Fold this sequence. Notes:
This protein is α+β, with helices and mostly antiparallel strands. The protein contains 13 helices and 14 strands.
Amino acid sequence: MNHKTTIGKFALDSLTIGMxxxxxxxxxxxxxxxxxxxxxxxxxxxxxxxEDANIKVNVCPNDRTIEIEDNGIGIEKNKAYSKLAxxxxxxxxxxxxxxxxxxxxxxxxxxxxxxxxxxxxxxESEKSIITxxxxxxxxxxxxGEYRDYDLEKVINECVSVEYDYEDNNKHFFKVIMHKVEExxxxxxxxxxxxxxxxxxxxxxxxxxxxxYADLNSGIKRFMKDNNIPIEEYxxxxxxxxxxxxxxxxxxxxxxxxxDDIVGINCSIITNDSCEPIAFLWYGDRKNCNSQIADSRVxxxxxxxxxIMVGNEETLxxxxxxxxxxxxYIGELYILDKKIIPNARRDDFEDNxxxxxxxxxxxxxxxRLTSIARNFSDMNNSYKKVEEAIKENEQIIERIxxxxxxKETKEELENKIKDNNSKIAKNSKKYxxxxxxxxxxxxxxxxxxxxxxxxxxxxxxxxDRYLHKDNNEDYKNNxxxxxxxxxxxxxxxxxxxxxxxxxxxxxxxTEYENIExxxxxxxRKGKR
Length: 527
């Protein structure tokens, strides 16, 4: 059968507009290609290391222009047109290169009127300039129009090449997007920075997240000790060096601190042959009382060659309850070369190697879910104890200040008893959660309830009130039990003075916690 297979022009539409849901992936695709080119330049000795490399992104909203340039190996003149005009015909190696399908460079065609590639390699005195007329391309791809055009004819009419003088010592690749769509996020500099801080292969800012570079037990130290490549590249956006946004401080949507990262966990995930297939790190939170609100760092995320695959939700499906992934910050680096990102890079090709990783991480996620759930139980118990204590304080104050009839008084005293039962019940729940957390590896969690002294004080107050007829302390000091009773006058004076200062400087809840600890410290003679 003599038949010449024709590739329809709409295949190109599927590989551009239809390939990606988020226009920002254009940045990822071009930076991904830049890192491959830089690796090759380092291998040839043209660059000493990644620190000698540069990937510069310039976004000009007024001109509606975007430029992305690297000092990687570049492309030879006699190969430039075929490499930059052919579709899905890449000579890259999927085991070593990040981009290997030969379609990523088309990502920009959907969002601008003209896409220009300029490139030169060392030893050549000319640069190649390949131009895609994207405005015409979109016109030729309109359904129902230009029916006689196949893919080859479309490309031939939309792609041109020219050459210009260039310094023969230079090696680079530049992408220029002209007339980008006006309302596109591609022109929103802050959004571009936010996107690249999550996706690009960047370093971490050690001034914000010192656990990365800690010499004793930091992430970087662990990676070096286990021969895990540290693949970080200097990426600038409009002159500003980009870093990942991880921090030891967890903030809410209003920018207010709500928690701290108090440690990190690093581990190697191996297959059944004990071969490393992934590297995982995640942060331990001090309180872990809710999901992390900042979507830029929330959730453990996939990375392959230090480029994010998927988003903050991709790994959530492995948790018993998906919401618990966002209780953590962390990254799962893929080390197995045969675990390959799919074409969209929103997950991985579903092969046997990936299945092993999924099974292994599912077990890890179960443990992380258990930790998060026990923190949730612990925090809920704490809240209920606090509420019961506060209500009892108010009830006692009312009984002491108001003239109440016998029936009302008995009703309030019964409420105190009920609250004391709640305090005891939830204190026990708190202790159980703490014990489970310690069994799960959170040895930093204190078995003593952080508000335990406070509970003892107020439960004692409540009991003293309920048994006031037989309680000499209560009779002698009806208004309030003095936690410093029996302490020398000088120490009491200093303690009260310190507490007065703290009361003026701290919020009520913070002050109450510290007040209780100070009383406990003084009463136990820990001076």
